[in-house]
Fold each of these.
Amino acid sequence: MRGKPWRGMVGGMSTPASPSDGLLAIDIGNSRVKLGWFANPSACVSPPQTTALPIASSPLPEPGETLSGSAAELLAGPLAEWLASLPAESLQIAIASVCPAISEPFETAVSTALANAGIGFTVLRLTNSAAPLTIDVEAPALVGADRIAAAVAANCLRLADTPVIVIDIGTAITVDLIDSKGVFQGGAILPGPTLAGAALAERTALLPKVLPGELDRSPDPVGRNTEAALHAGLYWGAVGALRELIARQRDRLPRPPQVLLTGGAAPGFARLIGGPDYTVRHVPHLTLAGIALSATMVDTAPVSDPPT
Ligand SMILES: Nc1ncnc2c1ncn2[C@@H]1O[C@H](COP(=O)(O)OP(=O)(O)O)[C@@H](O)[C@H]1O
Ligand SMILES: CC(C)(COP(=O)(O)O)[C@@H](O)C(=O)NCCC(=O)O
Ligand SMILES: [K+]
């Protein structure tokens, strides 16, 4: 997270990557690692958009191939197989990690798999100090790289003079505000529903664990057994927290924000957290796209508007 972005060869590879072979974005989260291969990650050069019309098609780069799972699942086989199947002879790799313990073994596994497949590569570990946006918080270097990557992507979807609230529902939930000039202002962090359920199971004698993927999309708020009550509390509790945080952040804004939603547990929440003057758009690959954009923009102009 700290220091200069590191760009160089890893694993003794001798074939340098050429940008034309595409970019591999890696998002190392606390539950899952997400990988996306972008054939053509184009820099977001002319943000923000100047039209107030609804966005018909995303200007974000879309990954041509994706892979996700826990680090252990991926390292057991799928990672090497997937990397070897990429239509590339050389790759630029960009990594954003919020889980340092996983970063090194995962990078080593990626290096080994690419070496075995005869694919050359360079590696860029994203740091906040090189991020193509202004981070206006007490300690910019300490903000999660995933939050910053998502904010970079959000800046590309941002309409002119319009603030954005970015919500990521993963292990944790983050609700971050990017102001109408594209500056990251900070936000809120709370447990994701799966983590909240796991914490309840761990710290109580009688509550069972609610497994990932088992959360109902619209549970009865009056659960008639323990599991049903947990589903009601975890789901509607998260909905309520999100609605309140968006509303309170919106209260500070001079005009309605765009609201973008991402993260592994995001499906099922978008339709419930819209407000009187804002709608919510679900962008599944927001963070991966932000990582790809950050890598292409790391040596170019910032996305956020220059200070006036
Ligand atoms: N089908 C699903 N329904 C609800 N939650 C899910 C589903 N699949 C994954 N999740 C949850 O999404 C979270 C992982 O999302 P992700 O964005 O990858 O998190 P992280 O970045 O923290 O690793 C986990 O808490 C997991 O339980
Ligand atoms: C808030 C997070 C735990 C979210 O991680 P995730 O749920 O995506 O695994 C992560 O962004 C993080 O560790 N951040 C560092 C502290 C901060 O952002 O202020
Ligand atoms: K995340």
Amino acid sequence: MKVCKFGGTSVASAEQVKKVAAIVQSDEQRRFVVVSAPGKRDSADIKVTDLLIDLANAVIAGEEIEDKIQAVVKRYEENAQGLGLDREISDIIEADLRTRCEQAIKVSPEYVLDSLKASGEDNNAKMIAMYFNSIGIEARYVSPEEGLVVNEPPARTMALSEAYNNLSSLKDSNEIIVFPGFFGYTAQGVLRTFDRGGSDITGAILAAAVGADIYENFTDVDCVFSANPKVVNNPAEITEITYREMRELSYAGFSVFHDEALMPVFKLKIPVNIKNTNNPASPGTRIVSESTINRRPVTGISADAGFSILYVSKYLMNREIGFGRKLLQILEEENISYEHTPSGLDDISVIIRSHQVDPEKEQRIVKRVYDELHADDVHFRHGFSMIVVVGEGMNNNTGLAARAATAISRTGANIEMINQGSSEVSLSFGVKQQFEDAILKALYEEFFQPVNV
Ligand SMILES: Nc1ncnc2c1ncn2[C@@H]1O[C@H](COP(=O)(O)OP(=O)(O)O)[C@@H](O)[C@H]1O
Ligand SMILES: N[C@@H](CC(=O)OP(=O)(O)O)C(=O)O
């Protein structure tokens, strides 16, 4: 039994949805289809999710929304027409959007965003189920309301354990289940969306709930590449990668698969297969618990921008019991999660995602650290990227850190932070954002195209 998730690019147009249907029809094990909202048809296009966010912001600001509603409806209308569906479906979608705009604003601005964002996948799943039935694939749309229970705000949106129990009965369905990605409902029945790219998470939850043999994640590339193909020319293909490696790489920039989507399948050791909707015959990349093939020490190199550093120094910090805890507690009270905490004897840096702070919050944190921890120097620095070198083979390979640092130095960039996780499956470097691409290329050359090999 296979659960298949089709990303935004795979359902962006009628032509793409027809490919999805052919993929489902070609293998009777493909019983579950999780879909995203229509994505980009070409590089200049706008994802439906982004059109919906734009619409939601206009609703919240009390601005004119007519053009924005029409922009969304047009995307579905074109797809419905190309799939030979009755025009009525786009009228239903338009009515649904108007209802969401009117009702959600009575609840809260956050709910307007959640409700409209979720409509992208919800309406698409309904339309795709309708199309499947029109061509003889017996299919049924299932709403996440039927069991995908997530936690209450302000906690991060995560599926609760009962979600798996609730959804497990779907495995007995005789029809193909078409399930919208990207959102669930709290126990109180309130809709909540996942992070961007979160339809991957829905697919993983469903795969775990029904005990799938494999979770197929269909996208627009043949496989996961060892570096972002938009930056590195023709990067090496990864045929097999472990959950741990993929987790590290998706954390920082491998946008092809959401890092949170590994958790549900990892626990049950359900393999993930990343495949291309435009080339389904290609074997793709398998994400597995244990690697079965011998590979080079480095499997992939990723890079992600948008990090800030909170720098704190205090003479004799190393002797002060509880200093680190108190510092992290201040961040916890400000609702900030941290990524790394490299430290010296008298100083510590806390690396965070920049979107979590604004100037006001920043000032408050700096003041609190001075007042409560009596630090000598406290300041934020912004505009950093994290570069992560990942490979299961790294822990018994000497000199890798030196090679990476030398390659980075060739770009003229200063390394602001180095962190090697205790599992030794990854090595992270904090660098100024403007060097990100050059460093990625330099590291790729170092580990994948060594001159003397
Ligand atoms: N290392 C990588 N390997 C493959 N694709 C990558 C990598 N890093 C970034 N990407 C990008 O991820 C994209 C696929 O993810 P996404 O845009 O979320 O697709 P989907 O619409 O299928 O969800 C690819 O088109 C590619 O540009
Ligand atoms: N549509 C949502 C969720 C998602 O997973 O999309 P995609 O499969 O296109 O990455 C987004 O754009 O974030």
Amino acid sequence: LPLPFSSKSRDFSLPNSSWNSEMKRLYEHYNSQCEVESEDGEKQKGLWRRLPSYNRSLKYATGGVYLSKLIQSKARLFTRNIKEQGGAAFEYVLFNNEEEQRCVGIFQAGHLLEGPPGNVHGGAIATIIDTVTGTHATLLSGTVMTANLNINYRSPIPLGGTVHIESSLDRKEGRKTFLSCRVTSTDGSKLHTEATGDF
Ligand SMILES: CCCCCCCCCCCCCCCC(=O)SCCNC(=O)CCNC(=O)[C@H](O)C(C)(C)COP(=O)(O)OP(=O)(O)OC[C@H]1O[C@@H](n2cnc3c(N)ncnc32)[C@H](O)[C@@H]1OP(=O)(O)O
């Protein structure tokens, strides 16, 4: 997809000083399997593609009919709108595997996302699942809206920890796209959340 963003925008999916070692390790794991450019400028396609992430998709910013013109220009993507120092809320990066129709998110949950003491709020978990699956559905099918998100919370996600989120295509039916999603510990041994999404 062509990126509807100004090249001057900050790409929030690049590593920053708030990322813990697990977040950085997983980032390197997937990033090292992305497209590489050799010294003579030849590009070698990778298995994964890192998806840049901005706080506003400017080209499509036509909504907000109930906002004043002044406030409209200040609208921001929910998951990228915290001005506080990095690491306070949603830190994440997405990688897409076009061939296998899989999209992976690495997510570090900051202290402002607390639900049950010491653990991540269920609404924040739903948000990051919607982000990963919604982006994946967009890559697979073009512009979409989430019609249905069904979430089973299996084990709490510790605040400050890093989890692995994987979205995979179940099927497409006409203009509908059905995805499944799993949130696990980074070594895959613990299942935190399972979800299905219809877009
Ligand atoms: C390179 C990088 C690129 C990345 C680029 C992206 C960058 C940035 C990333 C941000 C990533 C965040 C992603 C957030 C994504 C949201 O959070 S979207 C916000 C939440 N969702 C909404 O507000 C949607 C509100 N609902 C609607 O607008 C409408 O109900 C819908 C879903 C569009 C459906 O409307 P419609 O097409 O007019 O509905 P209708 O014709 O009645 O039904 C069509 C079909 O869908 C089915 N359907 C309708 N509603 C439902 C439902 N609720 N459940 C199941 N099936 C349904 C119907 O049964 C029907 O099926 P068939 O009979 O055709 O088999």
Amino acid sequence: MMRSKVLSLVPRATGVCRHMSTATKLTTVAVDDKTGIATLTMNRPPVNGLNLDLLRDLNQSIGEVEGNKSRGLILTSSNPTIFSAGLDILEMYKPDKDRIREFWTALQDVWLALYGSSVPTAAAINGHSPAGGCLLATSCEYRVMLPKFTIGLNETKLGIVAPKWFMSSFLSVLPRREAERALNQGRMFTTEEALSIGLIDEVAISKEQALDKCAQFIGTFAKVNPLARSLTKQQLRAVELQQLENERAQDLERFLFFVNQPSVQKGLGIYLESLKKKAKN
Ligand SMILES: CCCCCCC/C=C/C(=O)SCCNC(=O)CCNC(=O)[C@H](O)C(C)(C)COP(=O)(O)OP(=O)(O)OC[C@H]1O[C@@H](n2cnc3c(N)ncnc32)[C@H](O)[C@@H]1OP(=O)(O)O
């Protein structure tokens, strides 16, 4: 039987702000004693919306995995139908001016940590994975997805624009022509379509099988020198990582300018309403 030790269960202070959804951690890290592989699970009901708290927890958990000598990292969700609904739109709609800065900075941190992780990474995509969810999945090196879900960068459909580094992750997985068309269309792919285009690597029939397949992928590096592997990965990803490092401040200002446009606020409000109406029906 697999013996896992669950890390990262340090309680957090309870907040009063609407965004502080829980007093406990929104991610857990379980390391398999036998394989040395860490499974990082997102657990922010109802849809793993990436708010400031979840982003901070993700960043901390990725840091722990980097620090605890794990052989690899598998990212997944505790929700049986949603990997992540992407950025929590409530963070961007009528935003608090200080919090929105922290929010975007935390998102940048998560991308830099995950895309630039020194350990092999895989995503067990056990549910829908739009926008920011797709960003997390495509920041990993390997993707296994369950049937009958959707994945993609749908930003243009919401009247917003995915930043360059969202596109970098997407382009590291898809051929440029396919990526360009999908980004412009804001296209969401079914599991089957995602497999055929190469956006995911394998389909699994259950979460357990997806985790196994991710572990098998990470196992393929068992006989590769870890330092040589991680330096190779980092060199291959250095241009995109360095670009965001160099442009972090401008990227933040661009986001703040865009998010505060009245037309963008109006669009986000309408989209939120449509999500709520859909949830009621
Ligand atoms: C403005 C500048 C922008 C710069 C660029 C930023 C780049 C943006 C990246 C993003 O990630 S934007 C977010 C994009 N995400 C989506 O479009 C997903 C929207 N959600 C869905 O499609 C569905 O909810 C789902 C994920 C497929 C799940 O469907 P399901 O039927 O299971 O649940 P729902 O009933 O739809 O939702 C339950 C509950 O959750 C709320 N919700 C869903 N997604 C979000 C979200 N992204 N942010 C905030 N809230 C979300 C939904 O309204 C329901 O709420 P309640 O009605 O229960 O209160």
